[in-house]
Give the backbone structure.
Amino acid sequence: MSILICGGAGYIGSHMAKWLHARGTAVTILDNLSTGHREAARYGRLVEADLLEPAALDAVFEAGPFDAVMHFCARSLVGESVRLPLDYYDNNVVGTLNLLRAMRRHGVGRLVFSSTAAVFGEPVRDRIDESHPTAPINPYGASKLMVERMLRDVADAHGLRSVALRYFNAAGASPDGAIGEGHAPETHLIPNAIAAARGDGGRLRIFGDDWPTPDGTCVRDYIHVDDLAQAHWRALGYMETHAGAHAFNLGNGQGFSVREVVAAVERVGGRPVPVDIAPRRAGDPAVLVAASDLARRELGWRPDYTRLDDIVATAWRWHDGAGTA
Ligand code: UFG
């Protein structure tokens, strides 16, 4: 099998490439390295290209053929998307439009798409399943929801098969410490908490302690990055037997507050995390917890990492190895 991974130098894409590479799949990585790392793109052939350049995309596909595409390229920061909406629609929607056109030109009919819990907006019930209304409250979520709609239309009109996987909070690192989560600047909670504990990231700023949650801090559902990779791999198999455009929620089904995550980082690392309370961050919902029963049933997916401490331990291992990828 031969897979094109768009965004395979980024956090989740590089773990995907490693997963497929370990199972003998030929991997080509398309990445513009705007936020990805060259060192992380070591589990496939890296082609530097941008989804916003259709001619470059054609060249990538001509070097195929590919059995399927996995698409991780995106601007993905909620707060930034509120400030820079046009950049988000350009990268995430126009980029995907270009990719879909290229797939059609080159006869590639299967796509696994990185979607997000941000398509749901403010939850109207405790656990979010696929029947929950989609009403994004920030441009990032809106851009991903637009793509999901495009995928349904393209499935109806042209028979392109797709699976959109709506991640809740991707977390952790490769258990061998080879690759991990390294953004610049880093905005995500677990890497920032670990950096604060290690003394190399300043104090952790907790964005709001006046949310309507048990301890006043935001609640999220953390899912290990290798469990996301497993779901993508299963989605490839699913598309063998299922036409159409499908969407699944991926999370552990358990919510942890920011303070609970900080406590896990302290427990696992054996070091205190110095914190300051900061104002709420624009675009953050108070609580986001997944119901992933559909993915379990349809894809046969089971997360291997069900304990927050185990997820955090893989992140610590990578940070302690001074990982950069
Ligand atoms: N947080 C802090 N301090 C930090 C970083 C984060 O308090 O330094 C808080 C955030 O306000 C939020 C929680 O920790 O309440 C988690 O924040 P992250 O930035 O780690 O993750 P997000 O929930 O914002 O975002 C993730 C993905 C997005 C996806 C979103 C779904 O990164 O792509 O989940 O809402 F859209």
Remarks:
- The chain has a mean pLDDT of 96.
- The domain at 2-170+222-250 is CATH 3.40.50.720 (Rossmann fold).
- The chain has two domains: 2-170+222-250, 189-221+253-320.
- The pocket of UFG is lined by residues 76, 78, 116-118, 140, 169, 187-189, 192, 204-207, 218, 220, 258, 281, 284, 288 (CB under 6 Å).
